[in-house]
Amino acid sequence: MSTTAQIGVTGLAVMGRNLARNFARNGYTVALHNRTASRTHQLVEEFGEEGIFVPTDSAEEFVAALERPRRLVIMVKAGEPTDAVIKEFAPLLEAGDMIIDGGNAHFADTRRREKELREQGIHFVGTGISGGEEGALHGPSIMPGGSVESYAALGPMLERISAKAGACAPCVTHVGPDGAGHFVKMVHNGIEYADMQLIGEAYQLLRDVAGYSPEKIAEIFRTWNEGRLDSYLIDITADVLSHVDAATDQPFVDIVQDQAEQKGTGRWTVQIALDLGVPVSGIAEAVFARSLSGHAELRAASRHLAGPKATALSESEAAAFADRVEQALYASKIVSYTQGFHEIAAGSETYDWNIDSAAVARIWRGGCIIRAAFLDRITAAYEAEPELVSLLSDKGFADEIAAAQDDWRAVLVAATTQGVPTPGFAAALAYYDALRAERLPAALTQGQRDFFGAHTYRRTDREGSFHTLWGGDRSEVDA
Ligand SMILES: NC(=O)c1ccc[n+]([C@@H]2O[C@H](COP(=O)([O-])OP(=O)(O)OC[C@H]3O[C@@H](n4cnc5c(N)ncnc54)[C@H](OP(=O)(O)O)[C@@H]3O)[C@@H](O)[C@H]2O)c1
Q1: Contact indicator for 433, 409 with CB cutoff of 8 Å
Q2: Considering all CA atoms of the chain, what is the largest pairwise distance in Å, rounded to the nearest integer?
Q3: Hey, which bits of 310-389 come out as E strands?
Q4: 25 CA → ligand 1 middle, Å
Protein backbone atom coordinates (compact mmCIF):
# COMPACT_ATOMS: atom_id res chain seq x y z
CA MET A 1 0.00 0.00 0.00
CA SER A 2 1.30 3.47 -0.83
CA THR A 3 1.70 5.89 2.10
CA THR A 4 -0.42 8.70 0.85
CA ALA A 5 -2.90 9.77 3.50
CA GLN A 6 -2.29 13.16 5.09
CA ILE A 7 -4.44 12.29 8.05
CA GLY A 8 -6.09 9.18 9.50
CA VAL A 9 -9.20 8.77 11.61
CA THR A 10 -9.77 5.76 13.85
CA GLY A 11 -13.17 5.43 15.47
CA LEU A 12 -15.81 5.87 12.81
CA ALA A 13 -19.03 6.23 14.78
CA VAL A 14 -21.08 9.37 14.20
CA MET A 15 -18.37 11.90 15.13
CA GLY A 16 -15.36 10.17 13.59
CA ARG A 17 -17.09 9.39 10.36
CA ASN A 18 -18.27 12.95 9.87
CA LEU A 19 -14.89 14.36 10.78
CA ALA A 20 -13.22 12.02 8.27
CA ARG A 21 -15.69 13.16 5.60
CA ASN A 22 -14.98 16.79 6.50
CA PHE A 23 -11.23 16.28 5.97
CA ALA A 24 -11.88 14.48 2.67
CA ARG A 25 -14.32 17.14 1.43
CA ASN A 26 -11.60 19.69 2.10
CA GLY A 27 -9.20 17.92 -0.22
CA TYR A 28 -7.21 15.78 2.22
CA THR A 29 -6.56 12.11 1.66
CA VAL A 30 -7.93 10.33 4.72
CA ALA A 31 -6.95 6.91 6.04
CA LEU A 32 -9.82 5.16 7.82
CA HIS A 33 -9.84 2.62 10.63
CA ASN A 34 -12.36 1.29 13.11
CA ARG A 35 -12.23 -1.58 15.60
CA THR A 36 -15.18 -3.14 13.79
CA ALA A 37 -14.09 -3.06 10.17
CA SER A 38 -17.61 -3.01 8.74
CA ARG A 39 -18.00 0.65 9.77
CA THR A 40 -14.91 1.53 7.72
CA HIS A 41 -16.23 -0.10 4.57
CA GLN A 42 -19.72 1.27 5.09
CA LEU A 43 -18.32 4.79 5.16
CA VAL A 44 -16.52 4.27 1.86
CA GLU A 45 -19.59 2.67 0.29
CA GLU A 46 -21.87 5.52 1.33
CA PHE A 47 -19.58 8.53 0.98
CA GLY A 48 -16.60 7.36 -1.09
CA GLU A 49 -17.51 9.90 -3.78
CA GLU A 50 -16.90 12.83 -1.44
CA GLY A 51 -13.12 12.61 -1.51
CA ILE A 52 -10.14 10.28 -1.30
CA PHE A 53 -10.37 7.67 1.45
CA VAL A 54 -7.89 4.90 2.23
CA PRO A 55 -9.84 2.21 4.10
CA THR A 56 -7.72 -0.10 6.26
CA ASP A 57 -8.50 -3.24 8.23
CA SER A 58 -5.71 -3.33 10.80
CA ALA A 59 -3.70 -0.96 12.97
CA GLU A 60 -0.54 -1.81 10.99
CA GLU A 61 -2.20 -1.10 7.66
CA PHE A 62 -3.64 2.15 9.01
CA VAL A 63 -0.29 3.44 10.29
CA ALA A 64 1.44 2.39 7.06
CA ALA A 65 -1.08 4.41 5.05
CA LEU A 66 -0.13 7.70 6.71
CA GLU A 67 2.49 10.11 5.40
CA ARG A 68 5.14 11.14 7.94
CA PRO A 69 5.08 12.73 10.40
CA ARG A 70 1.84 10.83 10.92
CA ARG A 71 -1.35 12.55 12.00
CA LEU A 72 -3.69 10.08 13.58
CA VAL A 73 -7.06 11.20 14.95
CA ILE A 74 -8.77 9.08 17.61
CA MET A 75 -12.56 9.49 17.82
CA VAL A 76 -13.57 6.68 20.15
CA LYS A 77 -15.55 6.52 23.36
CA ALA A 78 -13.71 8.57 25.99
CA GLY A 79 -12.01 6.80 28.91
CA GLU A 80 -10.65 3.27 28.72
CA PRO A 81 -11.30 2.85 24.98
CA THR A 82 -8.98 5.82 24.33
CA ASP A 83 -6.22 4.20 26.39
CA ALA A 84 -6.80 0.89 24.58
CA VAL A 85 -6.44 2.56 21.19
CA ILE A 86 -3.30 4.45 22.24
CA LYS A 87 -1.82 1.19 23.52
CA GLU A 88 -2.52 -0.43 20.18
CA PHE A 89 -1.12 2.37 18.01
CA ALA A 90 1.73 3.94 19.98
CA PRO A 91 4.19 1.02 19.45
CA LEU A 92 3.68 1.40 15.69
CA LEU A 93 4.51 5.12 15.64
CA GLU A 94 7.80 7.03 15.48
CA ALA A 95 9.18 10.16 17.07
CA GLY A 96 7.51 13.27 15.65
CA ASP A 97 4.21 11.51 14.88
CA MET A 98 1.00 13.00 16.29
CA ILE A 99 -1.95 11.38 18.00
CA ILE A 100 -4.94 13.71 18.11
CA ASP A 101 -7.60 12.70 20.62
CA GLY A 102 -10.84 14.39 19.52
CA GLY A 103 -13.01 12.64 22.12
CA ASN A 104 -14.41 14.23 25.26
CA ALA A 105 -11.50 13.23 27.49
CA HIS A 106 -10.99 14.47 31.03
CA PHE A 107 -8.10 16.96 30.86
CA ALA A 108 -6.23 15.11 33.64
CA ASP A 109 -6.23 11.96 31.45
CA THR A 110 -4.97 14.07 28.58
CA ARG A 111 -2.12 15.42 30.73
CA ARG A 112 -1.16 11.88 31.72
CA ARG A 113 -1.29 10.57 28.15
CA GLU A 114 0.63 13.56 26.80
CA LYS A 115 3.40 13.04 29.33
CA GLU A 116 3.69 9.31 28.64
CA LEU A 117 3.76 9.73 24.88
CA ARG A 118 6.15 12.68 25.02
CA GLU A 119 8.71 10.28 26.51
CA GLN A 120 8.38 8.30 23.29
CA GLY A 121 8.75 11.47 21.18
CA ILE A 122 5.10 11.31 20.11
CA HIS A 123 2.98 14.46 20.21
CA PHE A 124 -0.31 13.84 21.94
CA VAL A 125 -2.82 16.52 21.04
CA GLY A 126 -5.89 16.44 23.28
CA THR A 127 -8.47 18.29 21.20
CA GLY A 128 -11.90 19.52 22.19
CA ILE A 129 -14.35 19.36 19.30
CA SER A 130 -17.77 20.95 19.60
CA GLY A 131 -20.72 21.05 17.27
CA GLY A 132 -22.15 17.55 17.41
CA GLU A 133 -22.43 15.46 14.27
CA GLU A 134 -23.41 18.39 12.04
CA GLY A 135 -20.44 20.41 13.26
CA ALA A 136 -18.04 17.52 12.70
CA LEU A 137 -19.19 17.36 9.08
CA HIS A 138 -19.63 21.02 8.16
CA GLY A 139 -17.18 22.74 10.49
CA PRO A 140 -16.83 22.40 14.26
CA SER A 141 -15.20 24.66 16.79
CA ILE A 142 -11.87 22.99 17.55
CA MET A 143 -9.85 23.38 20.75
CA PRO A 144 -6.47 21.65 20.40
CA GLY A 145 -3.95 21.42 23.22
CA GLY A 146 -0.54 19.75 22.94
CA SER A 147 2.79 21.08 21.77
CA VAL A 148 3.43 24.18 19.66
CA GLU A 149 5.27 21.98 17.09
CA SER A 150 2.26 19.73 16.66
CA TYR A 151 0.04 22.76 16.06
CA ALA A 152 2.41 23.96 13.35
CA ALA A 153 1.90 20.66 11.52
CA LEU A 154 -1.76 20.30 12.28
CA GLY A 155 -3.12 23.84 12.57
CA PRO A 156 -3.55 24.58 8.85
CA MET A 157 -5.57 21.38 8.37
CA LEU A 158 -7.76 22.10 11.39
CA GLU A 159 -8.23 25.67 10.22
CA ARG A 160 -9.45 24.39 6.88
CA ILE A 161 -12.07 21.99 8.33
CA SER A 162 -13.22 24.22 11.19
CA ALA A 163 -16.24 26.49 11.30
CA LYS A 164 -15.66 30.07 10.21
CA ALA A 165 -16.97 33.10 12.04
CA GLY A 166 -16.85 36.85 11.61
CA ALA A 167 -14.79 37.76 8.56
CA CYS A 168 -14.18 34.09 7.79
CA ALA A 169 -11.96 33.53 10.84
CA PRO A 170 -11.37 29.82 11.53
CA CYS A 171 -12.84 28.64 14.83
CA VAL A 172 -9.65 26.96 15.99
CA THR A 173 -6.62 28.11 17.92
CA HIS A 174 -3.76 26.46 19.78
CA VAL A 175 -5.34 26.71 23.22
CA GLY A 176 -2.22 25.80 25.18
CA PRO A 177 0.00 22.85 26.12
CA ASP A 178 -1.00 19.32 27.19
CA GLY A 179 -4.58 19.24 28.57
CA ALA A 180 -5.49 22.90 27.88
CA GLY A 181 -7.72 22.05 24.90
CA HIS A 182 -9.76 19.46 26.74
CA PHE A 183 -10.02 21.76 29.78
CA VAL A 184 -11.46 24.55 27.65
CA LYS A 185 -13.85 22.09 25.97
CA MET A 186 -14.97 20.97 29.43
CA VAL A 187 -15.75 24.55 30.48
CA HIS A 188 -17.47 25.13 27.13
CA ASN A 189 -19.79 22.26 27.99
CA GLY A 190 -20.33 23.62 31.51
CA ILE A 191 -21.38 26.96 30.03
CA GLU A 192 -23.60 25.05 27.61
CA TYR A 193 -25.35 23.44 30.60
CA ALA A 194 -25.87 26.87 32.17
CA ASP A 195 -27.15 28.41 28.91
CA MET A 196 -29.65 25.57 28.49
CA GLN A 197 -30.83 25.82 32.10
CA LEU A 198 -31.36 29.59 31.83
CA ILE A 199 -33.30 29.16 28.60
CA GLY A 200 -35.36 26.46 30.32
CA GLU A 201 -36.15 28.78 33.22
CA ALA A 202 -37.16 31.58 30.81
CA TYR A 203 -39.48 29.10 29.06
CA GLN A 204 -41.07 27.96 32.31
CA LEU A 205 -41.65 31.54 33.48
CA LEU A 206 -43.28 32.45 30.18
CA ARG A 207 -45.44 29.36 30.43
CA ASP A 208 -46.40 29.42 34.11
CA VAL A 209 -46.35 33.12 34.97
CA ALA A 210 -47.21 34.77 31.63
CA GLY A 211 -49.51 31.87 30.72
CA TYR A 212 -48.21 31.52 27.16
CA SER A 213 -48.44 28.42 24.95
CA PRO A 214 -45.28 26.72 23.63
CA GLU A 215 -46.05 28.09 20.15
CA LYS A 216 -46.32 31.64 21.49
CA ILE A 217 -43.08 31.17 23.46
CA ALA A 218 -41.40 29.91 20.29
CA GLU A 219 -42.42 33.18 18.63
CA ILE A 220 -40.94 35.18 21.51
CA PHE A 221 -37.69 33.22 21.29
CA ARG A 222 -37.53 33.92 17.55
CA THR A 223 -37.82 37.62 18.30
CA TRP A 224 -35.11 37.38 20.94
CA ASN A 225 -32.94 35.58 18.42
CA GLU A 226 -32.91 38.73 16.31
CA GLY A 227 -31.42 40.75 19.16
CA ARG A 228 -28.56 40.44 21.60
CA LEU A 229 -29.54 36.85 22.52
CA ASP A 230 -28.95 35.72 18.92
CA SER A 231 -27.51 32.22 19.33
CA TYR A 232 -27.73 28.63 18.17
CA LEU A 233 -29.37 27.50 21.41
CA ILE A 234 -32.13 30.15 21.30
CA ASP A 235 -32.72 29.30 17.65
CA ILE A 236 -33.13 25.55 18.21
CA THR A 237 -35.23 26.20 21.33
CA ALA A 238 -37.77 28.02 19.17
CA ASP A 239 -37.82 25.03 16.80
CA VAL A 240 -38.25 22.52 19.61
CA LEU A 241 -41.05 24.57 21.18
CA SER A 242 -43.01 24.92 17.95
CA HIS A 243 -42.73 21.21 17.15
CA VAL A 244 -46.01 19.29 17.50
CA ASP A 245 -46.00 15.57 18.26
CA ALA A 246 -47.53 13.74 15.30
CA ALA A 247 -48.90 10.86 17.40
CA THR A 248 -50.82 12.98 19.92
CA ASP A 249 -51.10 16.40 18.28
CA GLN A 250 -49.72 17.80 21.53
CA PRO A 251 -46.79 20.22 21.78
CA PHE A 252 -43.68 18.03 21.64
CA VAL A 253 -42.39 19.62 24.85
CA ASP A 254 -45.47 18.30 26.69
CA ILE A 255 -45.03 14.67 25.71
CA VAL A 256 -41.33 14.36 26.56
CA GLN A 257 -40.46 13.13 30.07
CA ASP A 258 -39.09 16.03 32.10
CA GLN A 259 -36.04 14.17 33.37
CA ALA A 260 -32.61 15.20 32.11
CA GLU A 261 -29.24 13.52 32.55
CA GLN A 262 -26.09 15.13 33.80
CA LYS A 263 -22.87 13.43 32.95
CA GLY A 264 -19.30 13.90 31.82
CA THR A 265 -18.10 17.34 31.01
CA GLY A 266 -20.84 19.40 32.72
CA ARG A 267 -20.26 17.60 35.99
CA TRP A 268 -16.47 17.80 35.61
CA THR A 269 -16.68 21.58 35.15
CA VAL A 270 -18.20 21.87 38.61
CA GLN A 271 -15.93 19.26 40.23
CA ILE A 272 -12.82 20.97 38.89
CA ALA A 273 -14.13 24.41 39.83
CA LEU A 274 -14.46 23.16 43.41
CA ASP A 275 -10.86 21.92 43.29
CA LEU A 276 -9.67 25.27 41.91
CA GLY A 277 -11.84 27.26 44.34
CA VAL A 278 -13.71 29.03 41.54
CA PRO A 279 -17.38 29.94 42.16
CA VAL A 280 -19.29 28.62 39.16
CA SER A 281 -22.65 28.68 40.92
CA GLY A 282 -24.70 29.16 37.74
CA ILE A 283 -23.11 26.14 36.07
CA ALA A 284 -23.46 24.12 39.29
CA GLU A 285 -27.17 24.96 39.54
CA ALA A 286 -27.61 23.79 35.97
CA VAL A 287 -26.00 20.44 36.79
CA PHE A 288 -28.05 20.13 39.99
CA ALA A 289 -31.27 21.07 38.19
CA ARG A 290 -30.75 18.18 35.79
CA SER A 291 -29.91 15.92 38.69
CA LEU A 292 -33.07 16.98 40.60
CA SER A 293 -35.23 16.44 37.51
CA GLY A 294 -33.97 12.87 37.33
CA HIS A 295 -35.04 12.03 40.90
CA ALA A 296 -38.53 10.85 39.95
CA GLU A 297 -39.11 9.20 43.34
CA LEU A 298 -38.25 12.38 45.26
CA ARG A 299 -40.48 14.48 43.05
CA ALA A 300 -43.39 12.02 43.29
CA ALA A 301 -43.07 12.01 47.08
CA SER A 302 -43.11 15.82 47.17
CA ARG A 303 -46.25 16.55 45.14
CA HIS A 304 -48.24 17.22 48.34
CA LEU A 305 -46.00 20.17 49.30
CA ALA A 306 -47.93 23.43 49.36
CA GLY A 307 -47.19 26.21 46.88
CA PRO A 308 -48.49 29.76 46.44
CA LYS A 309 -51.79 30.59 44.78
CA ALA A 310 -51.24 31.31 41.10
CA THR A 311 -52.17 34.76 39.82
CA ALA A 312 -53.09 35.26 36.19
CA LEU A 313 -51.54 38.17 34.29
CA SER A 314 -53.48 40.37 31.89
CA GLU A 315 -52.40 40.42 28.26
CA SER A 316 -50.41 43.64 28.66
CA GLU A 317 -48.87 42.47 31.94
CA ALA A 318 -47.79 39.22 30.29
CA ALA A 319 -46.16 41.10 27.40
CA ALA A 320 -44.30 43.38 29.82
CA PHE A 321 -43.25 40.35 31.85
CA ALA A 322 -41.84 38.65 28.73
CA ASP A 323 -39.63 41.70 28.12
CA ARG A 324 -38.38 41.48 31.70
CA VAL A 325 -37.57 37.79 31.27
CA GLU A 326 -35.40 38.71 28.27
CA GLN A 327 -33.46 41.11 30.51
CA ALA A 328 -33.12 38.49 33.26
CA LEU A 329 -31.96 35.85 30.79
CA TYR A 330 -29.36 38.15 29.27
CA ALA A 331 -28.01 39.32 32.63
CA SER A 332 -27.82 35.73 33.93
CA LYS A 333 -26.05 34.66 30.74
CA ILE A 334 -23.39 37.32 31.26
CA VAL A 335 -22.82 35.87 34.74
CA SER A 336 -22.50 32.26 33.44
CA TYR A 337 -19.83 33.30 30.96
CA THR A 338 -18.10 35.38 33.63
CA GLN A 339 -17.90 32.27 35.81
CA GLY A 340 -16.78 30.01 32.96
CA PHE A 341 -14.00 32.37 31.89
CA HIS A 342 -12.91 32.68 35.50
CA GLU A 343 -12.51 28.90 35.63
CA ILE A 344 -10.47 28.94 32.42
CA ALA A 345 -8.20 31.65 33.84
CA ALA A 346 -7.77 29.68 37.07
CA GLY A 347 -6.97 26.45 35.18
CA SER A 348 -4.54 28.34 32.97
CA GLU A 349 -2.73 29.75 35.96
CA THR A 350 -2.66 26.48 37.91
CA TYR A 351 -1.32 24.43 35.00
CA ASP A 352 0.76 27.17 33.41
CA TRP A 353 -1.13 27.06 30.11
CA ASN A 354 -1.11 30.76 29.25
CA ILE A 355 -4.59 30.55 27.70
CA ASP A 356 -5.69 33.59 25.72
CA SER A 357 -9.31 34.28 26.77
CA ALA A 358 -9.97 36.47 23.72
CA ALA A 359 -8.90 33.61 21.44
CA VAL A 360 -11.18 31.17 23.28
CA ALA A 361 -14.17 33.50 22.91
CA ARG A 362 -13.24 33.98 19.23
CA ILE A 363 -13.24 30.25 18.41
CA TRP A 364 -16.60 29.74 20.16
CA ARG A 365 -18.28 32.20 17.79
CA GLY A 366 -18.94 29.51 15.20
CA GLY A 367 -19.45 25.75 14.95
CA CYS A 368 -20.01 24.99 18.61
CA ILE A 369 -23.19 24.56 20.62
CA ILE A 370 -22.82 27.86 22.52
CA ARG A 371 -22.11 29.92 19.40
CA ALA A 372 -23.71 33.31 19.76
CA ALA A 373 -23.45 36.90 18.62
CA PHE A 374 -22.69 37.69 22.26
CA LEU A 375 -19.26 36.03 21.91
CA ASP A 376 -18.14 38.89 19.66
CA ARG A 377 -18.64 41.15 22.67
CA ILE A 378 -16.62 38.85 24.94
CA THR A 379 -13.84 38.64 22.36
CA ALA A 380 -13.74 42.44 22.15
CA ALA A 381 -13.70 42.79 25.94
CA TYR A 382 -10.69 40.48 26.31
CA GLU A 383 -8.92 41.95 23.28
CA ALA A 384 -9.24 45.40 24.81
CA GLU A 385 -8.04 44.18 28.21
CA PRO A 386 -6.34 40.74 28.11
CA GLU A 387 -5.87 40.71 31.89
CA LEU A 388 -9.51 41.54 32.61
CA VAL A 389 -10.14 40.20 36.14
CA SER A 390 -13.75 39.38 35.35
CA LEU A 391 -16.10 39.92 32.42
CA LEU A 392 -18.15 42.03 34.82
CA SER A 393 -15.17 44.40 35.07
CA ASP A 394 -15.75 45.27 31.42
CA LYS A 395 -17.61 48.55 31.31
CA GLY A 396 -19.89 47.47 28.47
CA PHE A 397 -21.12 44.37 30.31
CA ALA A 398 -21.35 46.21 33.63
CA ASP A 399 -23.52 48.88 32.00
CA GLU A 400 -25.78 46.30 30.38
CA ILE A 401 -26.27 44.43 33.63
CA ALA A 402 -26.96 47.70 35.41
CA ALA A 403 -29.65 48.44 32.84
CA ALA A 404 -31.13 44.94 33.22
CA GLN A 405 -31.03 44.60 36.97
CA ASP A 406 -34.41 46.05 37.90
CA ASP A 407 -36.17 43.68 35.53
CA TRP A 408 -33.90 40.80 36.60
CA ARG A 409 -34.91 41.36 40.23
CA ALA A 410 -38.59 41.76 39.31
CA VAL A 411 -38.53 38.45 37.44
CA LEU A 412 -37.07 36.69 40.47
CA VAL A 413 -39.71 38.27 42.70
CA ALA A 414 -42.41 36.98 40.34
CA ALA A 415 -40.78 33.53 40.21
CA THR A 416 -40.63 33.35 44.01
CA THR A 417 -44.14 34.69 44.51
CA GLN A 418 -45.58 32.27 41.97
CA GLY A 419 -43.44 29.31 43.06
CA VAL A 420 -41.55 28.76 39.79
CA PRO A 421 -38.07 27.27 40.38
CA THR A 422 -35.38 29.48 38.84
CA PRO A 423 -32.10 28.31 40.40
CA GLY A 424 -30.00 29.58 37.48
CA PHE A 425 -31.42 33.11 37.47
CA ALA A 426 -31.24 33.26 41.28
CA ALA A 427 -27.65 31.96 41.49
CA ALA A 428 -26.57 34.46 38.85
CA LEU A 429 -28.15 37.38 40.67
CA ALA A 430 -26.71 36.23 44.03
CA TYR A 431 -23.24 36.06 42.43
CA TYR A 432 -23.68 39.56 41.03
CA ASP A 433 -24.86 40.95 44.37
CA ALA A 434 -22.07 39.18 46.24
CA LEU A 435 -19.45 40.72 43.95
CA ARG A 436 -20.84 44.21 44.43
CA ALA A 437 -21.38 43.91 48.19
CA GLU A 438 -19.33 46.21 50.38
CA ARG A 439 -19.23 43.59 53.16
CA LEU A 440 -20.02 39.87 53.06
CA PRO A 441 -21.03 37.67 56.00
CA ALA A 442 -17.72 35.84 55.54
CA ALA A 443 -16.49 38.04 58.42
CA LEU A 444 -19.06 36.40 60.68
CA THR A 445 -18.08 32.98 59.33
CA GLN A 446 -14.48 33.69 60.30
CA GLY A 447 -15.64 34.66 63.81
CA GLN A 448 -17.60 31.41 64.15
CA ARG A 449 -14.64 29.36 62.95
CA ASP A 450 -12.34 31.08 65.38
CA PHE A 451 -14.87 30.49 68.19
CA PHE A 452 -15.29 26.75 67.75
CA GLY A 453 -11.99 25.76 66.22
CA ALA A 454 -9.44 28.50 66.94
CA HIS A 455 -9.02 28.86 63.18
CA THR A 456 -7.84 32.50 63.58
CA TYR A 457 -8.84 35.50 61.49
CA ARG A 458 -7.30 38.55 59.85
CA ARG A 459 -8.34 42.10 60.68
CA THR A 460 -9.30 44.96 58.41
CA ASP A 461 -7.14 47.46 60.28
CA ARG A 462 -3.76 45.72 60.60
CA GLU A 463 -1.65 42.84 59.27
CA GLY A 464 -1.31 39.46 60.97
CA SER A 465 -3.42 36.53 62.21
CA PHE A 466 -5.42 36.76 65.39
CA HIS A 467 -7.40 34.61 67.79
CA THR A 468 -9.92 35.69 70.39
CA LEU A 469 -9.95 33.81 73.71
CA TRP A 470 -13.68 33.09 73.41
CA GLY A 471 -13.83 30.77 76.44
CA GLY A 472 -11.83 33.18 78.61
CA ASP A 473 -11.78 36.92 78.93
CA ARG A 474 -12.31 37.40 75.16
CA SER A 475 -9.07 39.24 74.76
CA GLU A 476 -7.30 38.98 71.42
CA VAL A 477 -3.94 37.30 70.91
CA ASP A 478 -1.58 37.14 67.94
CA ALA A 479 -1.88 33.75 66.28
N1 LIG B 1 -21.66 12.80 19.74
C2 LIG B 1 -21.32 14.08 19.89
O3 LIG B 1 -22.09 15.02 19.64
C4 LIG B 1 -19.94 14.42 20.36
C5 LIG B 1 -19.53 15.75 20.33
C6 LIG B 1 -18.24 16.06 20.69
C7 LIG B 1 -17.40 15.05 21.08
N8 LIG B 1 -17.81 13.75 21.14
C9 LIG B 1 -16.86 12.74 21.55
O10 LIG B 1 -16.34 12.12 20.38
C11 LIG B 1 -16.01 10.76 20.65
C12 LIG B 1 -16.73 9.87 19.67
O13 LIG B 1 -18.12 10.05 19.83
P14 LIG B 1 -19.20 9.24 19.00
O15 LIG B 1 -20.53 9.68 19.50
O16 LIG B 1 -18.89 9.35 17.54
O17 LIG B 1 -18.87 7.71 19.34
P18 LIG B 1 -19.00 6.88 20.71
O19 LIG B 1 -20.34 6.23 20.74
O20 LIG B 1 -18.59 7.71 21.87
O21 LIG B 1 -17.89 5.75 20.47
C22 LIG B 1 -18.04 4.75 19.49
C23 LIG B 1 -16.72 4.51 18.80
O24 LIG B 1 -15.73 4.09 19.76
C25 LIG B 1 -15.16 2.84 19.33
N26 LIG B 1 -14.71 2.07 20.47
C27 LIG B 1 -15.37 1.89 21.64
N28 LIG B 1 -14.62 1.13 22.48
C29 LIG B 1 -13.47 0.84 21.83
C30 LIG B 1 -12.30 0.12 22.16
N31 LIG B 1 -12.16 -0.46 23.37
N32 LIG B 1 -11.32 0.02 21.24
C33 LIG B 1 -11.45 0.63 20.04
N34 LIG B 1 -12.53 1.34 19.66
C35 LIG B 1 -13.53 1.44 20.54
C36 LIG B 1 -16.29 2.19 18.57
O37 LIG B 1 -15.80 1.16 17.77
P38 LIG B 1 -16.77 -0.04 17.27
O39 LIG B 1 -17.46 0.48 16.07
O40 LIG B 1 -15.85 -1.14 16.99
O41 LIG B 1 -17.71 -0.33 18.42
C42 LIG B 1 -16.83 3.39 17.80
O43 LIG B 1 -16.02 3.69 16.69
C44 LIG B 1 -16.41 10.52 22.10
O45 LIG B 1 -15.30 10.69 22.93
C46 LIG B 1 -17.43 11.60 22.37
O47 LIG B 1 -17.50 11.95 23.75
C48 LIG B 1 -19.05 13.44 20.75
Answers
A1: no
A2: 88
A3: none
A4: 22
